Amino acid sequence: xxxxxxxxxxxxxxxxxxxxxxxxxxxxxxxxxxxxxxxxxxxxxxxxxxxxxxxxxxxxxxxxxxxxxxxxxxxxxxxxxxxxxxxxxxxxxxxxxxxxxxxxxxxxxxxxxxxxxxxxxxxxxxxxxxxxxxxxxxxxxxxxxxxxxxxxxxxxxxxxxxxxxxxxxxxxxxxxxxxxxxxxxxxxxxxxxxxxxxxxxxxxxxxxxxxxxxxxxxxxxxxxxxxxxxxxxxxxxx
Length: 238
What we know:
seven-stranded antiparallel beta sheet, Chorismate_lyase_/UTRA_dom_sf, DNA binding, alpha+beta, transcription regulation, Arc Repressor Mutant, subunit A, DNA-binding, two-stranded antiparallel ribbon
């Protein structure tokens, strides 16, 4: 078996050091020259390792100052299952339990005949730090399965996702999630949920989940804190 390239070995070692807390968030990593001397590798090897770490969000570079550890929550998405796997290592705290309300925009996006939706508001935390505030809208035909669900009551704390709670009750499985990504300022509720000032720039991700027949079953609107979250998508050629 051929040995792994030196830059991959160095990259993985630095990533492990960051994960283990040796380099905490905002801590400057050794310089290129220091790493060359410490590990006996070339400057090109160090630069390639840093390039990979920057691309995945593990570190960030400040021109003229150096390379710094970025203690962010990193998720890679390539399937519906990846979205549901948020429950594997994050906590959901419900700030406003599932309730019936009128929302013209959400109802239109869910392609409903009336303006009534069922809405739950929550934030997610990783390692105790909030990184996203989310509003989920459900049509009546889906929401009736979840009314009375303890995990969606105000103040509830769990490791579930709404779509994960919902799908076992659906006649048809979730087949796709169409999403849009923009930048938006934090409103008062979002700012309070993630601990920033109102107006703070947030990464807004809207997802419309549909079942195998193409019928929408959930609309989620999430505002992610960019200082605490890195989003990665893998695109595959068919």
